[in-house]
Each structure stands twice: as C-alpha cells, then as structure tokens.
Amino acid sequence: MQAFWCVDGSVIRAHRCAAGMIPQSEENDELVALGRSRGGYLTKIHILCDGQGTLLGITATGGQRHESTELENLIDHCELSLHRYDSRPDAIAGDKGYSSHAIRDRLRELGIEPVIGSKSNESREEEFDREAYRRRNIVERLIGWLKESRRVGTRYDKLACSYLAFVQLAALRRALKLI
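Predicted structure:
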C-alpha cells in the first residue's frame, strides 16, 4: 500500500476575547493569526494528515489567507522529514484550493504525486487518480473530529501557539482513543 497524505484548511471562528493583545500588523500576523471579516475575527488552520487521519502538521493563519499560500510552510512544519525517502509519501491529496502549477511542480520535485482536483478554468490533468482523490475525505473527517472539542471549534486564545497546542491535544486525545 502506498503512503498517502492529505492536506486541507478550515476556518475557525475566534471569540472576541481572542483579539486585542497586540495590534494587528504584517509582523504580528504569525504570532496572532487572526483575520477580520464582516462576521468578526477568524483563524484558518491548515492541516496535513496521513491516510489514517493522524495529524502530521498544522499551522494557523488569518482567516482571509488562501490555503495554497500556506502549503510550503505546512510541509516544513510536518513532523516527518520529507528530505528522507523512507518517510516521504507517494501522493498528497488536496482540494481545488491547492490547484496551481507551482504547487504541482514543487510536489513533483520532491518525488510526490499531486492528487489535486483542477479548477473549472484549468485544463485537466490526464494522470489524475480519482480513487486517491476520493480518499481525501479523511482530512475532512479529521477536521470534524477536532472541531468536536470546544477549544478547537471556537478559538478563545490570544496567541496562535496556545491555540495550536489545544489542537494538538485534541489530536492526541483522538489518537489515544484509537489505541
């Protein structure tokens, strides 16, 4: 069986108490990871998991940030090194939000097959693996399982590192239930 990883992002509503510690700016975006919208403050978590739904990497950005801009950073924050061939996946699946030639080329440079759906305005990939793309729902289910925890479903923490620690605790709690 080939090693198969999945990537996705999800928007998390931030409670009003999560804002206000330090002023929002480009320099503080990584520290705070909050974005402003008409509905209030938002955080977007970007998740990388394996084929069984085990969390491998997570980052947080402001809610307005697009998923494709964070994929490189997410791969760098992965718990397994992609520079070693034995820990490298055979394929990474993502939704249409990750559809770009730059992302596909970068994954192929690493020796990883991109399983990413094409947008309606792009030409379709001829070697697209539909079966692998259907298995991408494991990352959607992982996000749903993580959001069952109150501290993950709504962000109450002022700093992104504190919030990500609770996300990792929720993932650890889920992993321990499976044992």
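Summary: The chain has seven helices and seven strands.
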